[in-house]
Structure to design on (147 residues):
């Protein structure tokens, strides 16, 4: 009976070297991303909510529900089927950067629970988009639906 001894000593060092090289390359890529500013262009997403319902065949109501960033929303502008519309609200409609927006007063937070009435004549076919303006100068879609 003859016994042969297999030499498997080289397997572990080769796998170890491959893993070390892979970790070094990944670490270099992450550091390069931060050094060259690739991760710095990401904007903060605001968390606010609005609900929408049809009042009758010609009007819809959008109600601002607030959210985590409720204190920073200063106005909302609306389009119905791609056309700008002027909502009616007790808080008032003002011009901000040449566009009519719903706002309590310029640069003060929109009150939670505000209802905005929009003229929308095609029941079930109106595409309504509400873009919120925030006190940091950013804009974000807060409602986008077909009603």
């Amino acid at each position: 009976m003859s016994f042969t001894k297999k030499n498997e000593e080289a397997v572990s060092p080769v796998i170890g070297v491959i893993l070390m090289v892979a970790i070094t390359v990944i670490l270099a890529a992450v550091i390069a991303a931060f050094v060259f500013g690739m991760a710095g262009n990401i904007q903060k997403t605001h968390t606010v909510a609005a609900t929408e319902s049809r009042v009758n065949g010609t009007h819809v109501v959008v109600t601002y529900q607030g959210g985590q960033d409720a204190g920073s929303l200063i106005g909302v502008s609306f389009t119905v089927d791609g056309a700008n519309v002027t909502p009616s609200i007790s808080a008032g409609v003002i011009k901000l950067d040449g566009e009519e927006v719903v706002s309590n007063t310029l640069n003060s937070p929109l009150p939670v629970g505000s209802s905005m009435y929009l003229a929308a004549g095609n029941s079930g076919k109106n595409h309504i988009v509400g873009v919120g303006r925030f006190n940091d100068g950013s804009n974000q879609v807060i409602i986008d639906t077909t009603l």
Summary: The domain at 49-146 is CATH 2.60.40.10 (Immunoglobulin-like). Helices lie at 11-35.
